[in-house]
């Protein structure tokens, strides 16, 4: 056992530690940090004003209507007008509400949402007021952990708001939202582990720096997919906006809130969207790095300085469009489906993916845990253990999906009715749509109401008794009687 | 710059100041017209359900979710330092991590089997 424990000690400093931030803040005086903080805050507020307008316009276009277009050019000032309206509304606190917690909850939500942006790198080093400083407020060795921690504290704003309102719907909404946020935070945290394995750091500037040659969305594509799902779950957005669920629980945790306190929750929701998008950009899409083909122009002349802010903002808004697109496309999922997906699918699959990435990483050249054999393909050396491990993982993944598919098919077969049955859509007196596997019986033409009524009082009874079909169908009765009428 | 954590506090202060000022201004400039009906809990136009003081009862399901969250969140937090130091820990750490995840999966399978992850009973 002691020999086993000694193994890590035998490998001291195989590779230099990369976990410390690469961003250099030595030339950043304290007053400049405050200035940068204010600038980031203004950037966030302006983005929020814009994105609410953007969302309403895009949703409007998706639903074939113009969206808000009255206040300012293209309706750009709509959000400002809404904010002013909130400001001048009466601040109502229900009699049942817990006085202090009800007041503090929106403040927690609005305070915590901006904190994460302090460690997001918006750009590389620039000259700002005569100092060379990164376009990033600060960076710490555990930066990404800080984002997750702040998101958890932000959840307090939601649950406290729901709990303190002294009403049924907000309590339900607050609980749902908290259960949702914490359930999806596990999968989110696990999806980021793959990136840490590749970058060897949790500092955001180091992660962006190490993506200069390849964005992590390529090697960690599955993590990116999981992150995309969980970030929608984290921010309570459609199709996962079960915390609000307008049709079910009115408005969720903020039902009892109005005026500026409600606006704080609204602001927090949109800034949280920016935060998760910024984290996705930083972790998977190379942060402020120029996109691959554009970066080739003139030896990456557009890759540095203030250009970084442009690329970062562009990527950020791609994610915002993704959010709006989802909202315009998908209906809300059911709560139990949502929780099942998070706990029974995302968590085990992501953990397995992390193990797979760890093995791939271990087989790669600088580490070579499984031997150093290499094939030469073209003029590139490819590690044999790496190829073996990737093929093993691919085979396992294929087998798993195959088994999964077979079981899903078997379950669908078991659930489906044996034969196609014919139903009479009007059997109950009102029209009923067919279930899957049911076929509608064509209703026989009953003829004009008045004629049928006239005929049935006379000959229909005799026709029903002497006819060989034996079905007292009013349509059949009308047909046969009209034929027989000349005879009689 | 001495401590890299200080600017985070600047950001907290900015956010808190903005929230306080916005809500405070609204309290000052907004109208105040008392109406008893306004103070009642919202309940789709019917009489509000009497609500227990202290927040009322909460389904036990959520408590279970919170406990499971602690278990699995700590699992993922344990993976973070491992992932960051992966390049320097050697094959030993990879084996250890796989053993750790297998152990956690035993607990996970147990919870699944006992219905801890189900929402419909």
Summarize the structure in words.
The complex is a heterodimer of chains A (488) and B (121). Chain A is mainly alpha-helical. Chain A has 16 helices and six strands. In chain A, the strands form three sheets. Chain A has a two-stranded antiparallel ribbon. Residues 1-16, 452-472 and 474-488 of chain A have low confidence and may be disordered. With 121 residues, chain B is an all-alpha fold. Chain B has a domain at 52-121: Methane Monooxygenase Hydroxylase, Chain G, domain 1 (Up-down Bundle), CATH 1.20.58.1610. Helices cover 63% and strands 0% of the residues of chain B. Chain B is built from four helices and no strands. Chain B has helices at residues 6-29, 60-84, 86-89, 91-113. In chain B, helix 2 (60-84) packs antiparallel against helix 4. At the A-B interface, helix 2, helix 4, helix 5, helix 6 and helix 10 of A face helix 1, helix 2, helix 3 and helix 4 of B.
Write the layout of secondary structure elements.
The complex is a heterodimer of chains A (488) and B (121).
Chain A: H1 2-5, H2 30-62, H3 78-87, H4 99-115, E1 123-128, E2 131-135, H5 143-164, H6 168-199, H7 204-209, H8 221-234, H9 246-249, H10 259-284, H11 307-329, H12 335-363, E3 374-377, E4 380-383, H13 384-415, E5 421-423, E6 438-440, H14 449-456, H15 460-466, H16 474-484
Parallel strand pairs in A: 5-6
Antiparallel strand pairs in A: 1-2, 3-4
Helix pairs in contact in A: 2-10, 2-11, 3-10, 4-5, 4-10, 5-6, 5-10, 6-8, 6-12, 8-10, 8-12, 10-11, 12-13, 14-16
Chain B: H1 6-29, H2 60-84, H3 86-89, H4 91-113
Helix pairs in contact in B: 2-4
